[in-house]
Amino acid sequence: MNAATSTNSAPAERARIGGWQPFSACDWPGRLAAVVFLAGCPWRCGYCHNPGLLQRRHGQTSWPQLRAQLQARRGLLDGVVFSGGEPLSEPALPALLAEVRAMGFATGLHSGGSHPQRLAAVLPLLDWVGLDIKTMPAQYPAITAVAGSGERAAASLALLQASGIAYECRSTIHPALHDDSTLTQLAAWLAQRGVRHYAWQLLRPGPQLPQPFSPIAAGWPAPALQVAVASHFAHFEVRAG
């Protein structure tokens, strides 16, 4: 029994794919990777930059063609990252990961941790995870519009840490969502749980973003706050988004 069938997942050919990026140097720190965007997400964050991927029906069953293009890039890429949407919403994710590994690629995942049990099932097929931590768990529903979403993210973080897989946590931040107290509290909460690699991603303004998500003023977050937060982690950075 191979890895694709042992996970009891849907066949890879049924995956709903919303697009892909052939080469990326910023989606997996230190590696050159392709990024596959899977359609579907259970959360409804008001600042979502991929609203077209919220519904699985908006994806296409195009894995055979994409698989051929990835095979042609063997030797040129270090790995393949599955993003979204929320890739854990895709029933075919285990089969996709197994096929990518069989091609010789390392596998990465971008996730908000919305499905802890599904994350546990695919952890043996992963080499790296970028876990989005949106805010303190109790404040999650104000962002995701889903009750209990903070507890799911916290459970996913615990599973990820227990697995021993390389990972980083990242938070997309904006003054309308995160004041200095929230950012300080969130960093301390992650550090207390043993997170070593953390990043803030500044929310990019865009035409699809409603108020109050106006462009972030220069100098936010304050340099002193960045220095204080950085002291909690082995690696910390602020990304333009």
From TrEMBL:
Keywords: 4Fe-4S, Iron, Iron-sulfur, Metal-binding, S-adenosyl-L-methionine. Pfam families: Radical_SAM. Its cofactor is [4Fe-4S] cluster. The keyword Nucleotide-binding does not apply. Residues 28-241 form the Radical SAM core domain. This is Anaerobic ribonucleoside-triphosphate reductase activating protein. It comes from Vogesella indigofera. The lineage of its organism: Bacteria, Pseudomonadati, Pseudomonadota, Betaproteobacteria, Neisseriales.
